[in-house]
Amino acid sequence: MPRKLKTYQTSQGFFDLAVAAPSMKAALEAWGARSNLFHQGFAKEIGDPQVIAATMAKPGVVLQRPVGTTEPFQEHARLPSPDMLDLPRRTEAPAKRKPQKTSTAQPVDDKSARKAARTDQKEQRRREKERQKQQAAAAKQREHQQKAVAAAEAALERAQKEHESIASEIAADRARIEQRAQAEERRWQDVKDRLQAALRRASRS
Q: Which intervals of the chain are annotated as region Disordered (predicted)?
């Protein structure tokens, strides 16, 4: 009897991950985790009806949503925006600095702007790498799952063919035994009839 599925959730990078699995171990394997996230407090079983419904519709498939949000889980979620991640906005930095009245104010602002632009580009590249890494991991997991399903189906098909072959041999053996039993019954009936007839003749003489 297959084990009852439960819904488990964790976070990786910019995404919350959820999966319907029969055990914590199966959930860790689906996430590709190399350590026990449950013991470390980074993963848990979820009782949210909406999350459970989404994962149970696709058991074994890792679903995503932008980290820290309540958006619905899906196979390919969009990257979270800075507002979702509660990152400091670039427009807030100048507000904290009062414009200097000295002649060096403009060069300092330009330098800060260039530095902020480089930092932003670096962050975007990092996010893109993280997104590609998540997609590659998800694709690898799907491939692993498809191979496992194909192997199980092939094993089932081989077992079915073996069973049918054995059942056919048993049926043939049963038919041969039935024929022998009928033949023996006829032979015995003939012998019995002859011996009983001889007994009757001997009794009359």
A: 69-167
Residues 66 and 134 in one domain: no
Q: What is the 3-state secondary structure (H, E, C) of the chain?
A: CCCCCEEEEEEECCEEEEEEECCHHHHHHHHCCCCCCCCCCCEEECCCHHHHHHHHHCCCCCEEEECCCCCCCECCCCCCCHHHHCCCCCCHHHHHCCCCCCCCHHHHHHHHHHHHHHHHHHHHHHHHHHHHHHHHHHHHHHHHHHHHHHHHHHHHHHHHHHHHHHHHHHHHHHHHHHHHHHHHHHHHHHHHHHHHHHHHHHHHC
Residue 95 in any domain: the answer is no
**Residues 126/85, Cβ–Cβ less than 8 Å:** no
Quote the CA–CA distance of 52 and 48 in Å, as a whole number.
Answer: 6
Q: pLDDT tens digits, residue range 50-82?
A: 999 999 999 999 999 998 888 999 998 888 776
pLDDT averaged over every residue in the chain = 84
